[in-house]
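Running this now, will post back.
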Amino acid sequence: MKRLSSSTWVLLVGLSAIVAATGGACAAKQQSTFDGSGGKAGSTNSSSSSSGTNGTGGDGGDGGGWIPPTDGGDNDSGTCNEGPPDKDNDGDGYTENEGDCYDCDKNINPGAVEVIVDGEDAGAPVDENCNKETDEPPPTCDSGLALNSEDPMDAAKAIGLCNFVKSAKWVLADGSPIPVDATKLANFHLGHGILPKFGTNNTPQEGVNMLMLSSGTARNKGDGESVYRTFDKNYTSNAPFGFPKASPACPGVTTGLPHDATGVQIEVNVPTNALSATFDFQFFTYEWHDFICEQFNDFFVAHVEPFPMGQTDGNIAFDKTGNPISVNNAFIDACGCPGNPPDACAAGGISFTCALGKTFLAGTPFESDLANPGWTHGSTGWLRTTLPVKPGDTFRIRLVTYDSSDGNLDSSTLIDNWQWYGKAGEIGTIDIPPN
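Update: finished.
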């Protein structure tokens, strides 16, 4: 999988899908058509919302559109007859009586997300979500959240999922319930945190907060609850479906049982005009550089059910060579060692150029390896994963970070900036520049 620049990505602020619209308004009704020329959900070509395993985030095809009905009358000439108010004339799941403000376009209804019109060729603003406003500021919901909130719905809000969330719960690596023992439960809750900043240079990709999931403590350096390097929580679980698995970078090395997993599972209703979604994350690990290509291979897994088309185990986050996001990861580019730069850092038989330097590690607990003077621990920098979705469907996504084989040398993941798109996209993960 080729590592790509994200300079061509078109982002929305908050929860919005990109579906370019042309059209106008008459009296009280909207009349618009969609040309499918909205924003991108990736940076390579694709014309289908289906996906292949380990693909790159893709451009995608049309973001849906109004196909005029052929029931005679004015419809065949390109104008709209919305029909009886108790019938769903455009097939989007809503009638006029149920709030569909333009029942000739399946991208316009109360279950849609607002499209932000931007650029000369984007067309006139349209009220996609039928709230009597066009191009209103997108919702934000991650302010005022407590660092140590134990409400899993706050975790969804922290990553930018303000609407369309059906349920959320804390889970272990395989989706099983969290510990009930009081001590282990307290340890579990130290593994998630809602942070306005992590270290000196890691700030939210959107809004004012971001979620951290950790096999150790999800806290900033200097926080009283922060534990450097090892916080063994003394619980285990089974691995996610399809795991453990060997990384292509380390053939023949299989990791052990998950320890100290911290995860959140969110059930999401897809907007009626969305064909893909993205989220940003950054993986940090104390395992770098001492335990590359060994069984102590901590993971961040983004597991989706039902599996996206063409996907075999539900995990949608990979590095550029097909490795799951783990210690054995070709995306670990924020790091440092004696002689770097200009020399690469050799670890576990793999050469790491540390192209991102130490910027993302500054001020974090990962900035210095106290056991190895001159070395840092490692991070991927910010990455973005694309998920193809089907309008109106419901899916579950489990985001989880865990230790492997033991509870030593923890790993943590920042997650933020959930976005919806009206363009199809393929499963894949790319690196992106920081805000």
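The chain has two helices and 16 strands. More later if anyone needs it.
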